């Protein structure tokens, strides 16, 4: 895949005609690999009863402010927002808010529960580009609406783990935490503030702000000094005595029980709080040590209040999204689809008919369009790695025949076209 571009202070005309910083062209061998993985995802989701949903790439800005949360970096610093008339619109920074908006607007709460949806597509965040972090990136995600059971959490986690196992992703770990309901967090806030207050002067500016606005988010800080403070024994012990309600703890224990029974390894990470405001109860991330600093390939959790917050009826929900660029960086060799037949010809009408019939039987077929001599056309077939070459010259076209050559063995036969199509 092409690298993320670097900009220089003075932009030449050529630079402005190149792709913008933090974006990528996906093509050639990469696109074949992407398509393979996307079709594997679709198949797995469809087999488990998830249905695709396609929502707009931009929405009203307010949807993300209310959905993702006004206090989050994503909304505060990273959205591509523009005005059209009296409307404020934003390119979607993530998929969940749009899917929930659609769930409410399209009356999906009246569908039989659970409603299981999946999506794929580009997302946009104005972040500083680096390896594994783009301004336009792609997510594949799934959301399950209507159930507040541990089994629902376990199913969505399992969907991700099984997908990654199928793709043989290396060095993965599942980190999981329980962040409770907003009420649980009110209790957490006051206790946590007491614990942190003596250290306040040493904390970074962001954490000092979050101390007042959203102390839970302090645990997400990457600053080493702040991290060291939150790892101090008294704070660590406070965090590890789960601050959530009994109901939340029972729910979480139920999720863990299923993961244990399925022998899915996980690590309880009491510091995992996620960067979006809508989560309740279970949150999780799947990381790989092969990814460097941006090591999360998938993140998600339960969000029981979001549907209501966005104007719908009370509807619990849970889901996740994976980053395709990060996933593809972890995926090794994938099976390649060879070219089954290359048709060498100067009789294009006949050749196209034959190609149609073969493609209808799911063969991969290419017809030579060059008008060059058959020798050159054979060279092209070999270059493309075709397994077999079909030759249709004037004589074959007139006799309803074709010549078939196996490029691996060199064997060559003449067949009646109709009989060949019957037996192929
Ligand atoms: P998120 O953790 O913000 O969650 O993003 C999910 C995944 O998208 C990340 O784990 C990462 O792989 C990828 N990703 C995020 N930002 C970038 C970026 N700038 N460049 C490349 N990849 C990136 C969500 O978006 C939630 N909507 C997930 C969810 C669904 N929760 C419940 N349902």
Describe the structure.
- The structure is a single chain.
- The protein has 424 residues and is of the alpha+beta class.
- The chain folds into two domains: 255 residues, Bira Bifunctional Protein, Domain 2 (BirA Bifunctional Protein, domain 2), CATH 3.30.930; 83 residues, 3-Layer(aba) Sandwich (Rossmann fold).
- Helices cover 39% and strands 21% of the residues.
- Strands 1-5-6-11-10-9-7-8 form an eight-stranded mixed sheet. Strands 13-12-14-15-16 form a five-stranded mixed sheet, with helices on both faces. It has a three-stranded antiparallel sheet with strand order 2-4-3.
- A hairpin with a 2-residue loop joins strand 3 and strand 4.
- Helix 6 runs parallel beside helix 11.
- It starts with 12 loop residues before the first helix and ends with a helix.
- 34% of the residues are buried.
- The N terminus is likely disordered.
- The structure holds histidyl-adenosine monophosphate.
- The site of histidyl-adenosine monophosphate (HAM) has 27 residues, from strand 6, strand 10, strand 11 and helix 13.
- The site of histidyl-adenosine monophosphate has 27 residues, from strand 6, strand 10, strand 11 and helix 13.
């Amino acid at each position: 895949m092409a690298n993320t571009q670097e900009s220089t202070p003075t932009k030449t005309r050529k630079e402005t005609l190149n792709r913008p910083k933090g974006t990528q062209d996906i093509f050639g061998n990469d696109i074949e690999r992407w398509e393979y993985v996307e079709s594997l995802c679709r198949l797995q989701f469809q087999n488990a009863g998830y249905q695709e949903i396609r929502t707009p790439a931009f929405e009203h800005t307010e949807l993300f402010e209310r959905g993702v949360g006004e206090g989050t970096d994503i909304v505060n610093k990273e959205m591509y927002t523009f005005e059209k008339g009296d409307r404020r619109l934003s390119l979607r920074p993530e998929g969940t808010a749009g899917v929930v908006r659609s769930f409410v607007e399209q009356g999906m709460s009246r569908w039989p529960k659970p409603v299981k949806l999946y999506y794929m597509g580009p997302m946009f965040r104005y972040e500083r580009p680096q390896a594994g972090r783009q301004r336009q990136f792609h997510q594949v995600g799934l959301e399950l609406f209507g159930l507040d059971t541990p089994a629902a959490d376990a199913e969505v986690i399992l969907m991700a783990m099984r997908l990654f196992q199928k793709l043989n992703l290396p060095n993965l770990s599942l980190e999981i935490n329980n962040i409770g309901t907003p009420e649980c967090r009110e209790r957490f806030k006051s206790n946590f503030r007491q614990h942190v207050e003596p250290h306040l002067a040493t904390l970074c500016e962001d954490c000092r702000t979050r101390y007042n606005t959203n102390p839970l988010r302090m645990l997400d800080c990457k600053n080493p000094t702040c991290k060291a403070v939150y790892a101090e024994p008294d704070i660590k012990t406070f965090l590890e005595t789960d601050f959530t309600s009994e109901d939340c703890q029972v729910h979480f224990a139920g999720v863990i029980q299923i993961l244990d029974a399925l022998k899915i390894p996980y690590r309880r990470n009491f510091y995992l709080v996620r960067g979006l405001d809508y989560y309740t109860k279970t949150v999780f991330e799947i990381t790989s040590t092969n990814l460097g600093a941006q090591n999360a390939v998938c993140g998600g959790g339960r969000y029981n209040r979001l549907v209501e917050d966005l104007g719908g009826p009370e509807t619990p929900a849970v889901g996740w999204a994976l980053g395709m660029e990060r996933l593809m960086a972890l995926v090794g060799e994938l099976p390649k689809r060879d070219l089954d037949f290359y048709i060498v010809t100067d009789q294009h009408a006949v050749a196209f008919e034959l190609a149609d019939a073969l493609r209808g039987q799911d063969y991969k077929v290419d017809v030579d369009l060059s008008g060059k001599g058959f020798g050159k056309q054979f060279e092209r077939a070999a270059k493309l790695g075709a397994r077999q070459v079909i030759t249709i010259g004037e004589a074959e076209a007139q006799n309803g025949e074709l010549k078939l050559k196996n490029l691996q063995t060199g064997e060559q036969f003449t067949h009646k076209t109709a009989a060949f199509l019957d037996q192929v």
